[in-house]
Amino acid sequence: MAKQLLSAEEVKEMFNVTDFRNIGKDKLIEFVSAIPYMDKDVAVKAIEQFPAFSSYAQAMVSHLKEISTSIMAENDKSNQAVMEGYMVTLRTLDALAKQEGVSPEDRRCFAELMVDVTDKMSAHDLANKGFLDNLAKYSDVVVLILIAVGGTLLGVNLKGKSIPHLR
Predict the structure, then answer these.
(1) Using an 8 Å Cβ cutoff, are 27 and 50 in contact?
(2) Residue ranges of the chain with pLDDT lower than 50?
(3) pTM of the full predicted structure?
(4) What Cα–Cα distance (Å) separates residue 156 from each residue in 32, 42, 55, 114, 150?
């Protein structure tokens, strides 16, 4: 187990702040993680001086939404570009196969290439859906962590067990 932080000054030094009110959004998770290593009275004092936990948690969820929306928009652009590239290839192969004087053997070759391209399109689509699924899963995990952290700090009842207040 890590060294217990015995004084408020040690905790403030750890977060490089002069007052617990100065703990910013970026340090919130670190702060919550450090609570078990704080002296009970220091933890209570710190939490009492941390007035904006709820607004910080809401801001983090909002920021997470913005990041997810941005990632999805960029993914959509990239996915469309890849699919358009495959479609250009398919149209070109189709045009080549329809030209006069193309042997049946060449037409079969073009058809096989078209099947290969559609297989690649399918594989790309499947990989993209996996990416989006992971994005959704990790976003949910982050939100659940924020809710758990907030519940811990505020002493709510999780899974039927009352989390004791630090007082």
Answers:
(1) no
(2) 1-2, 154-167
(3) 0.54
(4) 15, 20, 17, 59, 9
